[in-house]
Specification:
The complex is a heterodimer of chains A (291) and B (169). By secondary structure, chain A is of the alpha+beta class. Chain A is built from 12 helices and 14 strands. Chain B has 2 domains: 76 residues, Beta-grasp domain (Ubiquitin-like (UB roll), Roll); 86 residues, DNA polymerase, domain 1. Chain B starts with a strand and ends in a 7-residue tail after the last helix. The chains are: A alpha+beta (291), B alpha+beta (169). Chain A: It holds the Pfam family FAD_binding_5. Chain A: This is Xanthine dehydrogenase family protein subunit M.
């Protein structure tokens, strides 16, 4: 279980990153926290010839409020997200998601940007980004662009990133006053990959659901938004929610794909169970469960 | 034979430069290059927790970092905790509670428990279980490890109260 030989560079600018990425092509691999990449290299599932370490790139580790919303630098590590009062105040769903990710020792090193760029279909954060309507800032030597999370995740380990580009920041737009959020997953052991997971952000106007973003992970090839299910939830009233049309729409629009441990049929069942639980938790009564 | 490159890091309080190949993990570096064998290597892909060490003051998997990434970092292994009061109390309660049999997981368990008690001096049993859930033990069945961690917390808190320490507030 040793990685194949590789060269290693701590890049100091996006231009340097771009030049090396162009020179090495598919043999170049960016490393952020390395908590998914290093095991893949140990198992020789990844054999990059060049590792481009982002740890010395300036300006990627800040969390700050901007006019567009809460901006989180790509190299912010999970434990920093969990400890951030800004994140707790402006994106509590992110704070709530961190304890579900692996274990404390992994959360010391893993980064938000690295997680999103890896695009593991069983990972929590891509779904949280979909639920919160995140905008992802991507940069390379040719400049920067911003794309919605919903257009960023393409497939398993597949994103809108082009060679030589990295995520530099994630912006979470300000939430409306009536926002409620929750995340949960079905998992055999704490810290394992989820069998099925869901992250919901529901916006109430008074006691009526005015908007909903229902994201699921570990169900198919990437994190997905259940848009028909969300439409079936809109207009329903707090304390009087009928989950049946929501769950029916969900089963219709998302076709789960089996993984190593769970059949598609199991995932379909668990997906509905989990969605029902989250609706109950968020909308059954008066108590605000902003989380 | 891989080429060797210099890496300068602070290891248990001492800053030094060593020669490593780029693909040497921090775990292999600690055991084979430096000869610090308290850090154990189990699964080599981040699952078992046996190689848990402190990187810049927080627990991390030494098998999920290449030594060359530790350039400029502060690394602390179990050897670096000699004389540390919290670690000494944890070790004694692990001994008293039979919280180890083969001992392979123990370094990682102690490192993880040490960080837990630093941030959460009076954890519930559930918190201890959650905190240690990333460290595998194949001997004890875990209960003794959880017991030992809770006993250590109780002793450290009692000492803090007796001396008017901040844990009393």
């Amino acid at each position: 279980m040793k990685a194949a030989p590789f060269d290693y560079v701590r890049v100091s600018s996006l231009d340097e990153l771009g030049e090396l990425a162009a020179a090495y092509g598919d043999d170049a691999q960016v490393i952020a926290g390395g908590q998914s990449l290093v095991p893949a290299m140990a198992m020789r599932m990844a054999r990059p010839k060049l590792l481009l370490d982002l740890c010395d790139l300036p300006g990627l580790a800040d969390i700050r409020l901007t006019p567009e919303g809460l901006e989180i630098g790509a190299m912010v590590r999970y434990f920093e997200l969990a400890a951030s009062p800004l994140v707790a105040a402006h994106a509590p769903l992110v704070s709530a998601a961190v304890p579900l990710i692996a274990h404390e020792a992994i959360r010391s090193r893993g980064t938000l940007g690295g997680n999103l760029a890896h695009a593991d279909p069983a990972s929590e954060m891509p779904a949280v980004m979909l639920a919160l309507g995140a905008v992802i800032t991507i940069a390379g030597s040719n400049g920067a662009r911003r794309i919605p999370a919903a257009e960023f995740f393409i497939g398993t380990y597949e994103t809108a990133l082009r060679p030589g580009e990295i995520i530099t920041a994630i912006t979470l737009p300000a939430a409306p006053v009536g926002r409620r959020g929750a995340i949960d997953e079905v998992v055999r052991r704490s810290g394992d990959y989820a069998a099925v997971g869901a992250a919901f952000a529901i916006d109430l106007e008074g006691e009526t659901v005015a908007g909903a973003r229902l994201a699921f992970f570990a169900v198919c090839e990437r994190a997905v938004l259940a848009e028909k299910a969300a439409a079936a939830l809109c207009g329903q009233r707090l304390g009087h929610v009928d989950p049946a049309p929501v769950l029916d729409a969900l089963a219709e629009e998302i076709t789960p794909v089996a993984d190593l441990h769970n059949r598609a049929e199991t995932k379909r069942h668990l997906m509905k169970v989990l969605a029902g639980r989250l609706l109950q938790r968020l909308l059954s009564g008066e108590k605000s469960t902003h989380g | 034979m891989d080429s060797l490159f210099p890496v300068t890091l602070t290891l248990n309080g001492v800053t030094a430069t060593h020669e490593v190949s780029q693909r040497t993990t921090l775990a292999d570096f600690l055991r084979q290059t430096v000869g610090l064998t308290a850090t154990h290597i189990g699964c080599e892909h981040g699952v078992c927790g046996a190689c848990t060490v402190f990187v810049d003051g927080r627990i991390a998997r030494a098998c999920l970092m290449f030594a060359i990434q530790a350039e400029g970092r502060d690394i602390r292994t179990l050897e670096g905790f000699a004389g540390d009061r919290r670690m000494e109390v944890l070790q004694r309660h692990f001994h008293e509670r039979n919280a180890l049999q083969c001992g392979f997981c123990t370094s990682g368990m102690l490192a993880t428990a040490h960080q837990l008690l630093e941030g959460s001096p009076d954890p519930s049993r559930e918190e201890v279980r959650e905190s240690l859930s990333g460290n595998f033990c194949r001997c004890t069945g875990y209960h003794a490890i959880v017991d030992a961690t809770l006993d250590a917390a109780a002793e450290l808190n009692a000492a803090a109260v007796a001396t008017g320490g901040e844990a009393a507030c």
